[in-house]
Amino acid sequence: MTEWSPTSWQSKPAAQQVGYADGDALARVLDEMGRLPPLVTSWEVEQLRGELARAARGEAFVLQGGDCAESFDDCRSEPIAAKLKILLQMSLVLVHGTRKPVIRIGRIAGQYAKPRTADVETRGEVTLPAYRGDLINRDAFTAEDRAPDPVLMLRAYERAALTLNFIRALTDGGFADLHHPEYWDVSFAKGAPNADQYERIVESIRESLDFVSAITGVENEVLRRVDIFTSHEALALPYEQAQTRRVPRRPGYYNLSTHFPWIGMRTAQLEGAHVEFHRGIRNPIGIKIGPAMTPEWLVALLDALDPAGEPGRITLIHRMGAEQVAAKLPPLVEAVCATGRGVLWICDPMHGNTETTPQGIKTRRFDKIVRELEHSFALHTQLGSRLGGVHVELTGEDVTECIGGARGLAEHDLERAYKSRVDPRLNYEQALEMAMRIARHLRGGA
Ligand code: PEP
Ligand code: CO
Question: Which end of the chain has fewer CB atoms surrounding its CB within 10 Å, N or C?
Answer without folding.
Answer: C
